[in-house]
């Protein structure tokens, strides 16, 4: 990656009429939250954890739910703070160059960094809320985590008795149709599609760059590892997100 690459991407951002951004776990690693598929990723180190990260396993296995809630109560996501990469995207919005930010992350750090909520699509849900799998009850997850810390290992809904879960999308759960449609529309309407910190291997979200390319957008990838879309990208940036992204935005 050279200064010319940085300058080129900044120039494309300045020229773009519509910019869509997709972020993955890589943007939050500098906030102390491990990614999933990187060299030190959660699932790279423990492949069995990925195999059990399904809604079917969660519903059927009480021991798994107990471990899941215990892990949630100790998760670094609850104390993590946004890093320079998150703030750079907020600054990009401030310059009028961020139309839609689709994130695969469940940590809520784009909200904390100040990006306008109406521009954010949390395509895989959020860890900041709980949801009942039986009724419509939903609220701040801290309410349930307090119950866990007080000894309720497998908390159930106090409205209907159903299973509670973080308001995230597990494998086997359908994405919220409205969120997926909004993300696809943003990709289709973009002049520049910026993929940041994502392996671009988890579908249907991984299809968003293809939609953007088919509709004539430039694709820029900022990621530590190679992705399946690298051959189609107009620029590939390999530096640290918290270093590279602010440099680009400063030039916009």
Could you write a compact summary of the structure shown?
38% of the residues lie in helices and 16% in strands. It is built from eleven helices and nine strands.
Care to describe what's here?
With 252 residues, this protein is of the alpha/beta class. It has eleven helices and nine strands. It has two domains: 1-33 and 82-124 and 174-252, Rossmann fold (3-Layer(aba) Sandwich); 44-79 and 125-168, SIR2/SIRT2 'Small Domain'. The strands form two sheets. The protein has a six-stranded parallel sheet with strand order 3-2-1-7-8-9, sandwiched between helices. The protein has a three-stranded antiparallel sheet with strand order 5-4-6, covered by helices on one side. Helix 10 (208-214) links the parallel strand 7 and strand 8 (218-222). The longest helix has 13 residues, at 3-15. The mean pLDDT is 92.
Q: Can you tag this structure with a few keywords?
A:
alpha/beta, single chain, elongated, 252 residues, 11 helices, six-stranded parallel β-sheet, SIR2/SIRT2 'Small Domain', Rossmann fold, three-stranded antiparallel β-sheet
Percentage of residues in helical conformation = 25-40%
Largest sheet: 6 strands, parallel
CATH superfamily of the largest domain: TPP-binding domain
The CATH class of the largest domain: Alpha Beta
**Whole-number tally of structural domains:** 2
Terminal CA distance: 18 Å
> What is the CATH fold-level name of the largest domain?
Rossmann fold
The portion of residues forming beta strands comes to 15-25%
Side by side, the strands of the main sheet go 3-2-1-7-8-9
DSSP strand count: 9
What's the tally of helices?
A: 11
Radius of gyration: 19 Å
List unreliable stretches of 5+ residues: none
Question: Can you name the CATH architecture of the largest domain?
Answer: 3-Layer(aba) Sandwich
Give the overall silhouette. elongated
- Mean of residue pLDDT? 92
Helix-strand string: HEHHHHHEHEEEHEHEHEEH
Broad structural category: alpha/beta
């Amino acid at each position: 990656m050279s200064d010319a690459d940085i300058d080129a991407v900044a120039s494309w951002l300045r020229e773009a009429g519509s910019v869509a951004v997709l972020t993955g776990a890589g943007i939050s690693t500098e906030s102390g939250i491990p990614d999933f598929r990187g060299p030190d990723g959660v699932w790279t180190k423990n492949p069995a954890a990925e195999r059990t990260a399904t809604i079917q396993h969660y519903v059927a296995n009480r021991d798994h739910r107990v471990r899941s809630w215990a892990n949630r109560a100790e998760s670094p996501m609850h104390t993590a703070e946004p890093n320079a990469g998150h703030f750079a995207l907020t600054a990009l919005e401030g310059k009028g160059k961020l139309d839609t930010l689709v994130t695969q992350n469940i940590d809520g750090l784009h909200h904390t960094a100040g990006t306008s909520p109406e521009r954010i699509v949390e395509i895989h849900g959020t860890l900041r809320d709980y949801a009942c799998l039986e009724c419509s009850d939903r609220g701040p997850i801290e309410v349930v985590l307090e119950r866990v810390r007080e000894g309720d290992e497998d908390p159930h809904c106090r409205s209907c008795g159903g299973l509670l879960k973080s308001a995230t999308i597990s494998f086997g759960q359908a994405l919220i149709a409205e969120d997926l449609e909004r993300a696809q529309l943003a990709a289709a309407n973009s002049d520049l599609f910026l993929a940041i910190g994502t392996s671009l291997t988890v579908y249907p979200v991984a299809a968003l760059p293809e939609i953007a390319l088919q509709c004539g957008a430039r694709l820029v990838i900022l990621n530590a590892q190679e992705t399946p879309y690298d051959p189609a990208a107009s620029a590939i940036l390999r530096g640290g997100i918290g270093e590279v992204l602010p440099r680009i935005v400063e030039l916009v």
